[in-house]
Amino acid sequence: MKDQSEFAKNIIKIYKKHARAWTELRGQLLYEKAWLNYFLSLIPEHAQILDLGCGSGKPIAAYLIEQGHSVVGVDSSDVMIEMAKHNFPEQHWIQTDMRQLDLGQKFQGILAWDSFFHLTQDDQRKMFAQFSRFAEQGTVLMFTSGPAAGEAIGDMFGDVLYHASLSQQEYRQLLKDHGYEVVKMLAEDPDCAGHTVWLAQKL
């Protein structure tokens, strides 16, 4: 497949440009609820959760907060972070690129839902060191990917939206190499809008 990774450079700009329209389109339907419940079942009460690509904080971070957890949300879009701060001022919201995040903190849960898969394949490989950096023994990691290795181009309000994925085998190896055990993985889950979801725990 032709390398389309040049389009990845525009992702942050697109989410800044269309932040409010995307948030409205996304809506409040929590189709991820079953996976979020599984994720939460593996972490302690009143946990610290790192949400990479948090958007406006709704509906995912909102659900985590409702369950009694504290959220540190990270997003590259200043508009998304402004909305998140407005929605949940008591939580911690950081405008930065997840690849460059530098925090002296460990988390019991790390979430990269519909965000990690906008990175190039090489950047995805490098992110596993980031996941480990913020994890302690028992930390639960959940992220979405594509179902197979490759690049895909979508559309957001007329702008080209880049996605990439590694192979399932490579994700499993990267998780293993960084001390994670796969708890559950499902490709193109029909009960979750066709998402491919990975749930792993740090050993």
Automatic annotation (TrEMBL):
<feature type="domain" description="Methyltransferase">
    <location>
        <begin position="49"/>
        <end position="136"/>
    </location>
</feature>
<keyword id="KW-0489">Methyltransferase</keyword>
<protein>
    <submittedName>
        <fullName>Methyltransferase domain-containing protein</fullName>
    </submittedName>
</protein>
<keyword id="KW-0808">Transferase</keyword>
<dbReference type="Pfam" id="PF13649">
    <property type="entry name" value="Methyltransf_25"/>
</dbReference>
<dbReference type="GO" id="GO:0008168">
    <property type="term" value="F:methyltransferase activity"/>
</dbReference>
<dbReference type="InterPro" id="IPR029063">
    <property type="entry name" value="SAM-dependent_MTases_sf"/>
</dbReference>
<dbReference type="InterPro" id="IPR041698">
    <property type="entry name" value="Methyltransf_25"/>
</dbReference>
<dbReference type="GO" id="GO:0032259">
    <property type="term" value="P:methylation"/>
</dbReference>
